[in-house]
Amino acid sequence: MSTNRLKERLDKGPVICAEGFLFEIERRGYMSSGEFVPMVSLDHPEVLENLHREFQHAGSDIVEAFTYNGHREKMRVIGKEDLLEPLNRSALKIAKKVALDTPKGSQPNLMAGNISNSNIWKEDDKQAQKVVEGMFSEMIGWAVDEGADILIGETFYYAEEAFKALEVMKKTGLPTVLTISPMGENKMRDGKSVVDTCKELEQLGADVVGLNCFRGPATMFPFLKEIREAVKCHVGALPIPYRTSEDYPTFFNLPDRSNCECPSPHGRTFPTALDPHFCNRYEIGKFAKDAYTLGINYLGVCCGANPMLIREVAESIGLKVPASKYRENMENHFMYGKNKRIPKHMTEYGDKA
Ligand SMILES: [Zn+2]
Q1: 36 CA to middle of ligand 1, Å?
Q2: Beta partners for 300?
Q3: Taking Cα atoms as reference points, which of 202, 201, 209 lies closest to residue 159?
Q4: Nearest 5°: phi and psi at 138?
Q5: How far is CA 207 from CA 7, 284, 330, in A?
Q6: How far apart are CA 191 and CA 330, in angstroms?
Q7: Which of 74, 100, 263, 315 has the CA that lies 20 to 30 A from 138?
Q8: Residue 179: its H or E element
Q9: CB 65 within 8 A of CB 40
Q10: d(CA 274, CA 81)
Q11: How far is the C-alpha of 284 from the C-alpha of 16, rounded, in Å?
């Protein structure tokens, strides 16, 4: 009998999964914003490998293959369907390589295959649903081929699409994580409540259910509380690091905070002008700690994540990770440090600086 490595680890304690590759690779200059196709695994594999290593260094236990949006429909939109399989296989191989090269002292990383929202799923459209199932099946097939240890289905805003994704994932026998992403209506687009969707995913056999993306800590946490009470399986929590609110529950419609004189040319802060809404690291640390205290052991950060925030998640729940070596040390700051070598005329000047 095969063991469920993911569940075993979650039963013992926290498991951290860095996500948010889309935004981070875009920020680094290797992806077109808006279009958001992960060509980086073919065009600049070294860039993707390095980002995985940085997340690993910061404490991620899972190396998730960057195949988000790397599905047949998106490749058709950009006229590169012929690159679909090479893109997927390259992303999976890179993730596997990094997972097998876990730094000394850390638990061996798990490589995750990934499928996500297709954006062509439509209620009552059996034809469209069949196409989506085919897209999931081929990607999961490649993930298994390339040695995935677990499978992650994420960012689903239709309940039925999430159920279909899980059904395809479950056929492999690998451990499964299924996280959903309700939009601003605070329910799934096909009408199901967030909690009922998670309960059904548990019934269908997901090892981890929960939420990822679209919502910042403030508008994700209330749902997580309800989910944690409603299910027995492990729960996942991967917010975006942006200050969403009751009025603006997701990052899609966040207005600029201070009437910026240089708004984005496309008329909204999402996805390229969200910067003023960014959560500081302590807010993300508090979120992770609060979630962990609730009994949520699968933790991470989604779009907007960077290695610094992943380290904050890890340290906030008491873990020491390779990047902890370089954690904050204000003691030695030239104006604000308490180190006795910092001259008094500098520390005294701090409030005027
Ligand atoms: Zn995301």
Answers
A1: 12
A2: 17
A3: 201
A4: -65, -40
A5: 7, 24, 41
A6: 49
A7: 100
A8: strand 176-180
A9: no
A10: 31
A11: 13
Q: What six digits make up the tokens of 316?
A: 């906030």
Q: Give backbone dihedrals phi and psi of 315, rounded to 5 degrees, phi first.
A: -70, -30
DSSP assigned state of 278: B
**Tokens 């690993």 correspond to what residue?**
56
| 53-93 confidence digits (pLDDT tens) | 999 999 999 999 999 999 999 999 999 999 999 999 999 99
Angle, CA 300 vertex, CA 294 and CA 302 arms, to 5°: 125
- Burial bucket for residue 46 (CB in 10 Å: 0-12, 13-18, 19+): exposed
Across 107-163, where does the E strand assignment appear? 110-116, 150-156
- Measuring CA to CA, which residue among 19, 65, 7 is closest to residue 212? 19
Strand, coil or helix: 275: helix
Distance 154 CA to ligand 1 centre (A): 9
pTM of the model: 0.97
Ligand 1 centroid to Cα of residue 147, in Å, is 24
222-250 residue pLDDT tens: 999 999 999 999 999 999 999 999 999 99
Separation of CA 167 and ligand 1 centre (Å): 22
Ligand 1 center to 240 CA (angstroms): 6
Ramachandran quadrant class, 158 (left: phi over 0; alpha: psi -120 to 50; beta: rest): beta
Looking at residue 124, the DSSP 8-state letter turns out to be: T
The pLDDT of residue 2 is: 65
CA–centroid distance, 156 to ligand 1, in Å, is 11
CA torsion angle for 156, 157, 161, 164 (degrees, to 10)?
40
101 C-alpha to ligand 1 centroid (Å): 25
